[in-house]
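Memo to structure team: turn this sequence into structure tokens by end of day. - J.P.
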Amino acid sequence: IGGVIVVTYIWKNIPYLRIRRQDWQYLDWDFMKKHMVIALPMAFQTSIIAVGTIIVQMALNRLGPVAVAAFAAAQKVETIALMPMMSFGIAMAAYTAQNYGAGKFARIKKGVNQCILMSGAFSILVGIFIVIFGPNFMELFVGAEEIDVIELGQVYLVTTSACYIVLALLFIYRNTLQGLGQSFVPTFAGIMELVMRAIVGLCFVDTLGFWGATIASPAAWFGSCIPLAVAYYYTLRRMKKNIRKLKREQIISK
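Reply from structure team:
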């Protein structure tokens, strides 16, 4: 439904984006290949995250229906809470790509730093908000009479909300690298996220119970964020070297 609405709006209000028959006559395969190299890994990452969540839910099935319901309700609340942080990351992908194409590397660093401050501050505030009002939001999904489900779901929200700042960094670093045209490290980080979530979920649910499932997501965020952060700062240092080299060449040419 959302796709139909978007296409209809574009067709009526944005003539430049309308797809016509002549648009398919001159396909630039090299141009398409460059986009697919970035687009396919991004789609693959989404699938990886979904698979990891399914694995954790399979482990949760052994704890009974209350645990499953609590996990599902808490994740719905968390999904809503995390949308602004996801938006910060998506904005950085477009911002980085535009400035990278324009050769304004200093603006990329400045934008990332400012986005880290904004998204980091938001992650702390939303974490506090979730801890305080999480049970009220879960009542929208399970009903106020499901006290056991709400209490167990609150355990999940309190645990994961303490690590929202890591997730905020993950969104920023991953989308920034994708904006720079890099696909390998974000894909590798997605695989790390799957592996960490699966290992923690499968190994700790039996020993730690529901809390073992709650730490699966933070473990996945840490496991994914580390290679992304290393890759970003390595890329940043490499760009600085290229800028200095370019300035030296310009001075010599003068």
